Amino acid sequence: MIDVQEVSIEFPGREGPVRAVRGASFQVAAGEAYGLVGESGSGKTTLLRAIGGMTPVAAGRIALGAQPDPSSKNSPALRLAAQKRASRETQMVFQDPYASLHPGFTVDRTLREPLVINGMDRHDERIAETLRSVGLGPAFRFRYPHQLSGGQRQRVAIARALIVEPRVLLLDEPTSALDVSVQAEILNLLRGLHREHGLTLVLVSHNLAVVGFLCTRIAVMRQGEIVEHTTTDAIRLGHAEHEYTRRLLQAAQGYRRRSA
Amino acid sequence: MNASLLCEIDQLHVAFPGPDRQWAPAVRGVSLTLAPGERLGLVGESGSGKSLTGRALLGQLPPAARISARTLRYAGRDLLAMPAAERRRLCGQEMGMILQDPKYSLNPVMTVGRQMREAWALRNPGMKRRDMDEQVLASLDAVHIRDSRRVAASYPHELSGGMGQRVMIAMMAANGPRLLVADEPTSALDVLVAMQVLDVLDDMVARHNTGLIFISHDLSLVGAFCDRVAVMYAGRVVETCAAGELRQAQHPYTRALLAASPALADPPERLPVIERDPSWLQATEGGAP
What we know:
The complex is a heterodimer. By secondary structure, chain A is α/β, with parallel strands linked by helices. Chain A has one domain: 3-Layer(aba) Sandwich (Rossmann fold), CATH 3.40.50.300. Chain A is 37% helix and 25% strand. Chain A contains 9 helices and 9 strands. Chain A has helices at residues 44-51, 76-89, 107-117, 123-133, 150-162, 180-197, 208-214, 232-236, 243-252; strands spanning 2-13, 16-28, 33-38, 59-64, 90-93, 168-172, 200-205, 217-222, 225-231. Chain A is globular, with a radius of gyration of 19 Å. Chain B is 35% helix and 22% strand. In chain B, the strands form 2 sheets. Chain B has a 6-stranded mixed beta sheet, with helices on both faces. In chain B, strands 1, 2, 4, 5 and 6 form a 5-stranded antiparallel beta sheet that branches. Chain B is globular, with a radius of gyration of 20 Å. Chain A binds chain B through residues 39-40, 150, 179-185, 187-188, 191, 206-210, 212-213, 235-236, 247-248, 251-259, and chain B through 45-46, 161, 190-195, 198-199, 202-203, 205-206, 217-221, 224-225, 256-257, 260-267, 270-274.
């Protein structure tokens, strides 16, 4: 479904381009949940944004499911149509639900806009249906973000992504701005959506326990490179090849006090 | 009054002006004690009143807040009756606070060295500039900052989050405050950096026998770092227990919070979601409303 091949991403810097991601490769099968773990600045969010088509790639190739190879001999119009379909099929949920929703839009308008953009039909029906699938009743439809709690906002953000019937959901730290009690609700929701709709998930997080709850395979990133490809099962057994993964694993097991 | 206690809070109430000229209560009758050298964890969800409780002790509530308490004592002295100037002096010299995000709590237009000297001058009036510079470097070394000279000459935006938080700890803890309120000191940091910052804090607090109030939403972190944990819900303390006994906590809210965070080793099929019982709003520790 997702094929990331030797991808490098650069940003302009004061002294020439800065490489934020260097030669990253991984594949995600359709219906799989894949985790990207690492510290801030490791390039995990940048890589996720590149998969979502929001950040240009300096070298390498990212292919998404039905997307044709750009070097193929299709006409430009066909390529554009394919690109449009790919961007509808890949939706993103951002970290901070306080910043990612338009404060002046009602939930209804937030959900209606992507339907209009993608020329989809049955707007009212779809809005009600999608709200129900993220556990929000019809009463929420005409509320503004400031009338919602953090967890409710993140549900709206997830509904905004789901409403165009994507096949891939890109999740950038979807629960790190939330209380653990609310995090539990959102994680349950995501797991349910993944299982029931066969959605492909790519989850970026610095929290190994959160990644472990949703994902089966994991890539560990550090300073722009993937240092280890591993699985949740291996992590649970305490297996880690790279020294950095071992340190992450140790930290995930909790703080050990030195003083008596 | 108990002479061996560092802080004594009895029936603390904090309220804010709400709509229709009503007062909206945010802290509703919190009672806590802290002994010298003790680490008390204050845990709860956003809006449970944990930060306000810490701020009330330091006299750092927002101006709109209304505070009342049966007792609010620090080292045997009544904080509510104390003149404002005296309280401010205490705040600089004996009490300190570390906030969540060093990006916002350090002065962005002053070098680290300069703002640290400011803090030193407050505690040691008349200290010579050269001695102060030495103290600044020594306290940066003490929080395991390798290149202390470069860091002292840097502006806060030139430092990483973990480095900034260490500077905050160096500033607050170097002189050995008797009371330190750390409000989510690691939640803006990466997990590995957070561990290092906790080590530094651990070290500082142990060395100076500081009474620490550690505010966090992370129950297991507090359980590992502190001696005692008080769990707050909707402006009240619903349960206090020894940190080591957290896993045997009695209150359904504490148990629900513990269960809600996924375990790495063996997470359940569905994470239990907190079913909020209206009676939690009334009951305080010991049962009686």
